[in-house]
Amino acid sequence: MHGGGCFLPAVGCGDVACHVAEEAQFACPVQHQLLGGGLTAWILAEFPGKILHAAYYGSSQPVLQESIWREAWFIYDMTYMVTGFEMIAVGIYAVTDKSDSPVWPRWAGWVAIGGALSFVPESVMPYFNTGPLALNGLWNFWIAFPWWLIWFGIYTFYMLRYLRRQLIETAEEPVRARVAATPEAT
Q1: C-alpha to C-alpha distances, 104 to 17, 92, 115, 130, nearest whole angstrom
Q2: Contact status, residue 87 vs residue 112, Cβ threshold 8 Å
Q3: Which value, to the nearest 10 degrees, does the dihedral of the CA atoms of residues 109, 147, 31, 45 take?
Q4: Dist CA 29 CA 93 (whole Å)
Q5: In this predicted model, what pLDDT tens digit does every residue of 46-67 receive, in sequence order?
Q6: Looking at residue 150, what is its pLDDT?
Q7: How far apart are CA 87 and CA 142, in angstroms?
Q8: SS3 assignment, position 185
């Protein structure tokens, strides 16, 4: 449940970084990133609550527990388009950013777009009980989810690095302005 609370500030920082970088030149992808990230944070907050709800029943009602557990996982996995929406928006932003000081490198944009596309095979997951496309299969746990974790690590690292650089530059600007405004001693 705390995952959503931790994810949402990162999304907000990403939105701020994009606005600072381009002064809202790419407002549409930036707003999509914020919307997708906000909804992803909600899903990350709801999912553990459902898992805990299933755990509450323990072994006293195994069918109900299994039902709630599967519902939680299907909601978590089948709402990939929300997170994919955010990842594609960030990817487009990174790939098209031509500034001297980009928030994310171009290759990180392609990682984001590839990660969003890696979720698409999960659309057939409810129809498989076994195999690589099942809920507990190869694709869900070993390809799509790790790809998202890798993307989020890259996204967070470069976003925080960019914001730190901006804070340092902003702190130095008033000093430069005072030095430039000071009359020279003759």
Answers
A1: 10, 11, 15, 38
A2: yes
A3: -160
A4: 6
A5: 878 888 888 888 788 888 888 8
A6: 94
A7: 19
A8: coil
**How far apart are alpha carbons 66 and 83 in whole angstroms?**
26
What gap in Å lies between CA 119 and CA 37, rounded to an integer? Answer: 16
Q: Which amino acid is at 147?
A: W
**The three-state (H, E, C) secondary structure of 126-159, written as one string:** HHCCCCCCCCCCHHHHHHHHHHHHHHHHHHHHHH
- The gap from C-alpha 13 to its chain's centroid, in whole angstroms, comes to 11
Can you read off the two tokens belonging to residue 170?
């902003």
Amino acid at 102: P
At 14, the amino acid letter reads G
E strand or H helix that includes residue 110:
helix 106-118
DSSP codes, 65-101: HHHHHHHHHHHHHHTHHHHHHHHHHHHHHHHH--SSS
| Segments in the chain below pLDDT 50 | 1-5, 24
Give how far Cα 6 sits from Cα of 1, 87, 125, 138, Å.
9, 17, 28, 27
